[in-house]
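Researcher: We plan to redesign the surface later, but first we want a full-length starting point. Tokens attached.
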């Protein structure tokens, strides 16, 4: 739930490749423990992590790092990820905004195909670096498997003309995959988003 933020049971099951009934049962157990809660927003119901659940998650992740001896590898991968993340954020900003007529914050209306093609090329370039990062992580923590594959799948849809796969929130977009990987790294190392990393 820390990676998804807010999601219904089928989405949680799909994200982690779990059976829906098993996922529902686990979520109900976690609710009984006070780790997750359900709520409704704009007509959509879903699960989210509680403060108690976040604390439990942090303990479990710390235990995992200690048991596997993976901290040094994850720290090194995170250090390589930080500049890549800055480049990715800049690229997504260029997808969303296209300065025009003196307005630096003009929304990209996606009518300048050369602009969009350059942004997509940058997204592909950044994405090619994920495989190596993931390989290093998976050697010590197999649960990191799949980020590069998911990013590549989203990128293939973008290249095929399905542009919502760049930063859409209703699909497993490049941006969604990226922010989940970022959150996974931060959570694993016990870091907070927005502290300069």
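Model: Full-length starting sequence:
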């Amino acid at each position: 739930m820390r990676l998804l933020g807010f999601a219904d049971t089928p989405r949680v099951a799909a994200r982690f490749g779990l059976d829906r009934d098993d996922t529902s049962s686990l979520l109900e157990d976690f609710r009984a423990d006070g780790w997750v809660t359900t709520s409704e927003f704009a007509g959509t119901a879903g699960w989210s992590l509680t403060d108690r659940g976040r604390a439990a998650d942090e303990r479990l992740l710390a235990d995992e790092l200690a048991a596997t001896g993976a901290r040094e590898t994850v720290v090194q991968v995170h250090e390589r990820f930080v500049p890549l993340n800055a480049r990715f954020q800049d690229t997504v900003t260029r997808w969303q905004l296209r300065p025009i007529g003196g307005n630096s914050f003009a929304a990209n209306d996606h009518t300048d195909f050369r602009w969009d093609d350059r942004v997509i090329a940058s997204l592909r370039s950044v994405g090619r670096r994920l495989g190596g990062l993931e390989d290093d992580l998976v050697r010590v923590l197999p649960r990191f498997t799949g980020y590069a594959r998911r990013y590549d799948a989203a990128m293939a849809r973008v290249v095929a003309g399905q542009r919502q796969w760049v930063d859409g929130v209703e699909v497993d977009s490049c941006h969604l995959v990226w922010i989940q990987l970022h959150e996974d790294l931060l959570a694993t190392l016990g870091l907070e988003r927005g502290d300069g990393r």
